[in-house]
Amino acid sequence: MKGKLTDLLHTFNGISLDELSRAPLMNRVDEKFAFPIAKLEAFLDEMRPYYDVLNIDGKVIFDYTSQYFDNATYSFFHDHHKAIPNRFKVRIRTYLDSNKSFLEVKEKIKGRTDKNRINIDGFTSDFTDDHRLFLMDRLRKNMDLQPVMVNSYRRITLVNKLVEERLTIDFDIVNGTLDAPNCKKQTLSSVVIAELKQPKLDRTSPFYQLMKRELVRPFRISKFCFGMIDLYDDENRLKANRFKAKKLLIQKLIKNSSHAPRPQTRF
Questions:
Q1: Which CATH superfamily is 2-256 part of?
Q2: First-to-last CA distance in the chain?
Q3: How high is the mean pLDDT of the chain?
Q4: How many whole angstroms separate alpha carbon 101 and alpha carbon 239?
Q5: 254: which of 21, 59, 135, 261 is 20 to 30 A away, CA to CA?
Q6: Tens of pLDDT along 164-212?
Q7: Mind listing the pLDDT tens digit for each residue in 49-78?
Q8: Under a CB-based contact definition with an 8 Å cutoff, are residues 194 and 33 in contact?
């Protein structure tokens, strides 16, 4: 799959990291879509006239891994579960191809996403004073955070040729912990999560129109939340009943996808 996708993406116009800054979108609106991985190649082929692809020294598919944090009562997870309009996500994201890591705070504010980040050496369970000050400033309170999960995935990044719009496409999603990097359940392993990022919602986007034609509706889905459910739901640590309909939809997508082997962990 990765080889075929790479060949296809090399037919796109490639852009550099510097050129990617034409659509930084650190403050934005997001629309997410989930579909079977078997459809990815055909969807990409249709998007070629409208989007450029991030290409760094010939590499067009990039490996990411993230370490997520929460407190002892899983406040971040439960805020997502209750769909609280103003909520947070804290993670360390590592770009495996460049070996760069950032401590990130994503704040959802009435439908908009505001992301801030600072450099960090890599995954950790003990923040430095500078990192604690950053977290205090962004979260606006002191929280006793601890690592709760890690995940890894592959990402393709497309940028609209004409307007400020970025499309990220994540697949081969694996979740677990540092001690057990490939947990028993892998709900998202055969699913693609595409995220359309715009200054404000524009349904005339070529990708949005493609999803509409293919009857793929916008779908609020979080790799963090689904990973947490895979890890902890059997232990009754989480209240996740409101995600039941989303879990059923993912199961339906998996049934409709090709039965690819489970991806191997990369963190």
A1: Hypothetical Protein Pfu-838710-001 (2.40.320.10)
A2: 20
A3: 90
A4: 31
A5: 59
A6: 899 999 999 999 998 887 788 898 988 999 999 998 899 999 999 999 9
A7: 999 999 999 999 999 999 999 999 999 999
A8: yes
Cα–Cα distance measured from residue 167 to residue 164, given in angstroms and rounded to the nearest whole number: 10
Within 8 A by CB and 6+ apart from 71, the residues are 143, 144, 145, 146
CA distance 68 to 228: 10
In percent, the amount of the chain with pLDDT more than 70 equals 94
Given this model, what pLDDT does residue 23 score?
Answer: 64
Smallest CA-to-CA distance from 26 within 154, 122, 138, 112 is with 112
Within a 10 A sphere around the Cβ of 191, how many other Cβ atoms? Answer: 22
Classified as helix, coil or strand, 64 is strand
Helices (H), the chain: 2-9, 17-20, 40-47, 75-81, 129-139, 206-213, 223-232, 244-256
